[in-house]
Amino acid sequence: MNLEKVYDHIDASYEHHVERIREFIRQPTISNTGIGMEKGATLLLSYFEHLGCKKTEIAQTPGWPVVYGYYDAGAKRTLLIYMMYDCMPADEPGWTVKPFDAALVHDYKVGDYPPFKTAMVARGTINTKGPLMAFLNACESIRETNGELPVNLLLVAEGEEEQASRHLPLFLSEHKKELNEADAMFFPSANQSLDGNITITPGTKGIRYWELECSGASWGRGPKEFDIHGSMKVIVDSPVWRMIHALETMTTEDGNRCLIDGWYDNVEPPNEEEREIIAKLAEEYDWGPQKASNSVDRFILDEKTQSRELLTKYFCEPSGINIDGIYGGYTGEGSKTLLPHKVTVKMDVRLVPNQRSSEILPKVRAHLDKHGYSDIRIRDITGGEWARTSINSSLWSSIRETYERFGLKPHIDVRNVGYAPFSLFTNTPLNLPGGFGYGMLGHGTRAHAPNEYFVMEGNGVVKGLRECEKSAAGILCRYATMP
User: CA geometry: angle at 145 spanning 141 and 151, to 5°?
Assistant: First the structure.
């Protein structure tokens, strides 16, 4: 296959490819509220059809559908391409552009780093509708210049990744026979950091997400049916204060270590390979991009004197216990004196080997009961397991070699500290023998935050859309011929 022709086509199609991404971004697909989900699925199906998929389908689930496409190149190898087309709401304050306008911002600056020539700022740009479209752009460029793709593709785009892929297992089970033709799974994402470095990450943490609810009705004290006047607090108990005191029992005073019995029992210590990776990273890891992209001044530990300890926590420990949000009573502007009848807390934990998502809520329940809070209700939201694969697989080798051809020597991390549903592919029902891999050149960040962005034209260090698409084409071509 002539990759130079593919690269020339990508260069010549830059404006067209940018507009394809903008078209998809401008269609909101917010799975938590349902806004735009059906239209987004239909639009994505049209992209699969335009690529030339032999079979396409909007597969219904009890939640949002999975968009499926099979591209038959008559090749020896088949890649399952996992994608997500849903994104988070964009109602948080701080946006400098309209979050679904897909604005192209020139000379876009982040922290003290050199500005990017052009960045697309919008919800879903980096997580992950932008990289998804970049991958499809690359595939179309291969077809238009070489006539055929080097591998067969099973395109699986779910609409519930932001809900921990709650119905993806059902789709995988129902399509097990055809999906088992895959040799490995690839997730298109843009993996460069602000300083231009890029990592290979052969694992991901798991997750459990739940809600706690304290109410006067379940407690038997305080207002039972509705919020009452705040002056009544002098003679009426508060479910909000009860919840606060219950939360206080769950962690150390700084909130950084969970005190729930058995919380860390199944945590597997870093193995020898992981300790070696961390030791090497500690000598070279630059925490600056993390601080800049997340607008954080300091970490729990000092990254200069305790880098190894901080990296160990980052990659190999569960996230303690995180409060995602607390709501109840009046939260609008100005004053409205109330004694709320109910308060809800959203919580999550990120899991590492050998924890199981199913073990978390029974431990939370036992803790609340032990401390006298049996009335506080637990509402399970979702969960998913951790995953890991071999760094020496054919797919990871293809990714690494592609990075190196672009002049980048990738770092090796222990695992992705967020969550992705890779365990659904490496474990039952598919048990893909080649495991999984993910990543392309390019950069973006601020997923779930205001001013999420994806770089279209870089700054000489961070690559842009052209290089992102070229790396996708390179990975496919190298994987097709990898021993």
Answer: 70
What is 205-267+317-384's CATH number?
Answer: 3.30.70.360
Supply the pLDDT for residue 391.
84
Is it the case that residue 25 has pLDDT exceeding 90? yes
Residues of the chain with CATH 3.40.630.10: 3-202+389-481
- What is the predicted pLDDT for the residue at 320? 83
The owner of tokens 């109840």 is: 328
87 pairs with which residues across the strands? 30
More confident residue, 60 or 382: 60
Tokens of residue 278, six digits: 């961390």
Q: Residue 28: its pLDDT value, please?
A: 98
CATH number of 3-202+389-481: 3.40.630.10
Distance CA 237, CA 426 (A): 50
Distance CA 195, CA 459 (A): 10
pLDDT in tens, 335-373: 999 999 999 999 999 999 999 999 999 999 999 999 999
Residue 448, judged by CB atoms within 10 A of its CB (0-12, 13-18, 19+), counts as middle
Question: CA triplet 3, 193, 290: central angle to 5 degrees?
Answer: 170
pLDDT tens digit sequence for 1-14: 899 999 999 999 99
Query: From CA 176, how far away is CA 367, in angstroms rounded?
Result: 39
Q: Which helix (H) or strand (E) holds 453?
A: strand 453-457
Predicted local distance difference test score (pLDDT) of residue 392: 86
Least confident of 297-301, 307-311, 390-394: 390-394
Closest CA to 460 of 212, 169, 202, 115: 115
**What DSSP string runs through 302-332?**
-TTTSHHHHHHHHHHS----EEEEEE-S--S
Which helix (H) or strand (E) covers residue 474, if one does? Answer: helix 465-481
Residue 83, strand partner residues: 157
Distances (CA, A) of 68 to 63, 365, 368: 15, 39, 43
Answer whether 441's CB lies under 8 Å from 467's CB: yes
Q: pTM above 0.90?
A: no
What kind and span of H or E run contains 217? helix 216-219
**Closest among 140, 154, 195, 114 to 21, alpha carbons compared:** 140
pLDDT more than 70, % of the chain:
100
- DSSP conformation letters of 336-387: --EE-SEEEEEEEEEE-TT--GGGHHHHHHHHHHHTT-TTSEEEEEEEE--E
